[in-house]
């Protein structure tokens, strides 16, 4: 969606994140396998912003790459003097910019595009509020800043918990911190914010009262508490993850996917699943997975960086690693690991195998316990298995090696040389039989033991 009026996003991320107890910048902690900041930038990008400015304190070098990849800019707030001071750091980057500004928090990653649009729309309604603030009503308003409104959506006062009276603390409409302000209003207002308050900080919400002193009104719009959930600790990270997953599962089911036990399926931010696919309990998706239609993923499968075509059957207990490309109607069964390999249409590897750096032809059958020995400790090598080939159980295919189409490898073989099409290859010790020898052996040993 492209808006007529340009807007810029300022994302605050200069807080120390002390409670995370982490060497990793707070906004880089992942939700569904993707950095919180990237979730937010992704949603913002969907609205085609003119500028994106991320305000960081320490750890600039950690976030630089991500911000660059999304063509954003970084400014550093050397000292964390408060949210108003943080936003003011973006002024130089937005010099001459005449559009609207959305102020967002890097540690509040679930905000949806629809809410961002509502903020901008409200700013541009006829009564033209000076500031639009996003409020929410959490179950426990705790120490959030409060928004005091008149009967309607006009804000009378914004007050931080520390500075609030008992009466004001009883108000359950809380400040999410997110705001929309015209650039032309924002920076002059910020320049007037002081720090004479309980925290000795420059409070962003103060711009609402400053605008009021100029005779201008500000408006609140409300959003759902889950959308405003911020991450300050590992426990809150898990809560936000849970909320993201809850919503993703509902979407999957709405899209025509069966989740037998939804709470036990974990999606990644980019998982794609086709309709009429069934996902049994306890399945985990890492990033980069595409699943076709009518696929069945049995319990306890872990799938990452893999493509699964229509009608395939996976698991239980399958592990698909990056580069696994499973063809239509193929079967990858229990305790089978597939890495960087193409599994042809209708091919089967049903039990206890490792298939790595391989190309398995259509309808080939990989017997239980087959291993592609793809690594010599230094380099990786390919294994090619032709269409309709049959690999007997417990075979070791020592790569690089080619098994021709329709070939059969006898069970227990160690295959070190190529096998031609339609040949039978046996690479195992020859069985010998000594008639009656077992009985004689038993007699001899029994006699020895009794000393007779
Ligand atoms: C702020 C709001 C409060 C609101 C709450 C919602 C103010 C004064 N208070 O409080 O009304 O209910 O958020 O979560 O705005 N940050 C900087 N630089 C700074 C300070 C903060 O970049 O100097 C960033 C932080 O990284 C964070 C965000 O701003 O992303 C909010 O900062 P935080 O310290 O959590 O503000 P609160 O005191 O929780
Ligand atoms: Mg906070």
CATH architecture of the largest domain: Alpha-Beta Complex
CATH level 1 class label of the largest domain: Alpha Beta
Strand content range:
25-35%
Helix content: 10-25%
Content-based structural category:
alpha/beta
- Distance N terminus to C terminus? 96 Å
Counting DSSP H or I runs of 4 or more residues, the number of helices is: 9
CATH homologous superfamily name of the largest domain? Answer: Spore Coat Polysaccharide Biosynthesis Protein SpsA, Chain A
Characterization of this structure:
Strands 12-15-18-21-24-27-30-33-36-38 form a ten-stranded parallel sheet, covered by helices on one side. It has an eight-stranded parallel sheet with strand order 14-17-20-23-26-29-32-35, with no helix packed on it. A seven-stranded mixed sheet has the order 5-4-1-6-10-7-11, sandwiched between helices. With 452 residues, it is of the alpha/beta class. It folds into two domains: 7-228, Alpha-Beta Complex (Spore Coat Polysaccharide Biosynthesis Protein SpsA, Chain A); 234-425, Hexapeptide repeat proteins (UDP N-Acetylglucosamine Acyltransferase, domain 1), CATH 2.160.10. The mean pLDDT is 97. It contains nine helices and 38 strands. It is elongated. The protein binds uridine-diphosphate-N-acetylglucosamine (UD1) and magnesium ion. Residues 230, 232 line the site of magnesium ion.
């Amino acid at each position: 969606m492209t808006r007529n009026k340009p807007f810029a996003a300022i994302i605050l991320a200069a807080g120390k994140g002390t409670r995370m107890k982490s060497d990793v910048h707070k906004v880089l902690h992942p939700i569904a396998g993707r950095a919180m900041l990237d979730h937010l930038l992704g949603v913002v990008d969907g609205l085609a912003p003119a500028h994106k400015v991320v305000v960081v304190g320490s750890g600039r070098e950690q976030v630089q790459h991500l911000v660059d990849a999304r063509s954003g800019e970084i400014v550093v707030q050397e000292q964390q003097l408060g949210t108003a001071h943080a936003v003011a750091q973006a002024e130089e980057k937005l010099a001459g910019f005449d559009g609207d500004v959305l102020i967002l928090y890097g540690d509040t990653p679930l905000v949806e595009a629809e809410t961002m649009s509502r903020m901008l729309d409200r700013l541009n309604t006829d009564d033209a509020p000076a500031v639009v603030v996003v409020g929410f009503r959490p179950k426990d308003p705790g120490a959030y800043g409060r928004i005091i409104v008149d009967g309607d959506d006009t804000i009378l006062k914004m007050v931080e918990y520390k500075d609030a009276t008992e009466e004001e603390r009883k108000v359950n409409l809380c400040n999410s911190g997110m705001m929309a302000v015209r650039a032309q209003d924002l920076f002059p207002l910020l320049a007037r914010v002081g720090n004479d308050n309980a925290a000795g900080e420059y409070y962003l919400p103060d711009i609402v009262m400053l605008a009021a002193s100029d005779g201008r009104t500000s408006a609140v719009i409300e959003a759902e508490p889950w959308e405003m959930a911020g991450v300050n600790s590992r426990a809150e990270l898990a809560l936000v993850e849970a909320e993201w997953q809850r919503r993703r599962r509902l979407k999957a089911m709405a899209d025509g996917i069966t989740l037998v036990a939804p709470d036990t399926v974990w999606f990644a931010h980019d998982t794609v699943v086709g309709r009429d696919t069934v996902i049994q309990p306890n399945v985990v998706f890492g990033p980069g997975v595409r699943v076709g239609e009518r696929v069945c993923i049995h319990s306890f499968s872990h799938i990452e960086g893999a493509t699964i075509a229509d009608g395939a059957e996976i698991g239980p207990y399958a592990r698909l690693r990056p580069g696994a490309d499973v063809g239509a109607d193929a079967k990858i069964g229990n305790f089978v690991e597939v890495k960087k390999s193409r599994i042809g249409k209708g091919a089967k590897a049903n039990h206890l195998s490792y298939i790595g750096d391989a190309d398995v032809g259509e309808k080939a059958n990989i017997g239980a316990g087959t291993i592609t020995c793809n690594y010599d400790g230094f380099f990786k090598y390919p294994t090619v298995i032709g269409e309709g080939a049959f690999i007997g159980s417990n075979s070791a295919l020592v790569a690089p090696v080619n098994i021709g189409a329709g070939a059969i490898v006898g069970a227990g073989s160690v295959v070190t040389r190529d096998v031609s099409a339609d040949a039978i290859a046996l690479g195992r010790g020859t069985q010998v039989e000594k008639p009656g020898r077992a009985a004689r052996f038993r007699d001899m040993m029994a006699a020895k033991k009794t000393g007779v």
